[in-house]
């Protein structure tokens, strides 16, 4: 029976109550709203595990705001009137007021940073580089791993070179000749997906089955970056597997499956997060022991190939003939109430409180 009443100790023997975690959320990417939902779940888990939490909201403009809670309810958005702050370089995690902002009673020092940000400026190594410059331990991927996995095309090349199967694709870069659906469908197949190379939550992603839908999808993806991936649409099942770093090495969760509601449904942003979404998830997925074992082994191999750290979610397609493809790797997977990563590890016997505790402890141990 699991309990959070007896708090685990940190590597230096302190209890969780003596550790202050800076929880970073919001951010400049198109996944700002998803980050708020992830942060609410992580905040509750950190508090339940006994940590002191300092919420730091990042506006869409990039301004950091110190947002201490007056109650237990997490912020619905970043408060533009909260104290603007920054980390002091060489200040061992000390927050400082910036631009003449009033220091209302003294700003805290954080022992470890927990980014709950998705997409550019949070998951791509930028924020991680700042933490390293300021000497602050942080949860999750290093600068290198964040940068590698944020670019889906680079991720595919590295996984492919390691002998891991990836979805066949074509890369389009802004300024290059625009490909046609007819040419691509002859190589990849008539059913395609078009997506930005450096974004998640299916933002900017759309299916393409003819020239007209391809043109629309390509224009939409270009709004989110210069690099666009055009991929074969795999007919089959969409599966996910979590990886969590431990003192003994990375471990894989049980496998989860996304059920979109109909065979042809696209798992887009609204389907993922709308309250009335027809999509459901199944944890664990109904798979043969052999297939589940292969997915878990491939997830760990992908984690190690990309130099990941802390946590990651590896997404797969299982084709109708039993062929497996790695779709992408997320180094800061969603932690919303409906996200698969925490649910898969809960089904593996690791509660969300223990998940965040392990992540914080690993970050402190590395420091």
Description:
- The protein has a 6-stranded mixed beta sheet with strand order 5-4-3-2-1-6. A 5-stranded antiparallel beta sheet has the order 13-12-11-14-15.
- The protein has 3 domains: 16-139, Rossmann fold; 149-166 and 235-331, D-amino Acid Aminotransferase, Chain A, domain 1; 171-232, Dna Ligase, domain 1 (2-Layer Sandwich), CATH 3.30.1490.
- With 367 residues, it is of the alpha+beta class.
- Helices cover 30% and strands 24% of the residues.
Q: What descriptors fit this protein?
A:
367 residues, alpha+beta, Rossmann fold, D-amino Acid Aminotransferase, Chain A, domain 1, Dna Ligase, domain 1, 3 domains, six-stranded mixed sheet, 24% strand, globular, disordered N terminus
Give the helix/strand layout.
Layout: E1 20-26, H1 32-48, E2 52-58, E3 64-66, E4 83-87, E5 95-97, E6 112-115, H2 126-134, H3 143-150, H4 152-161, E7 169-173, H5 181-188, E8 192-196, E9 206-208, H6 211-222, E10 227-232, E11 236-246, E12 249-259, H7 269-273, E13 280-282, H8 289-305, E14 311-319, E15 324-330, H9 340-347, H10 352-366
Parallel strand pairs: 1-2, 1-6
Antiparallel strand pairs: 2-3, 3-4, 4-5, 7-10, 8-9, 8-10, 11-12, 11-14, 12-13, 14-15
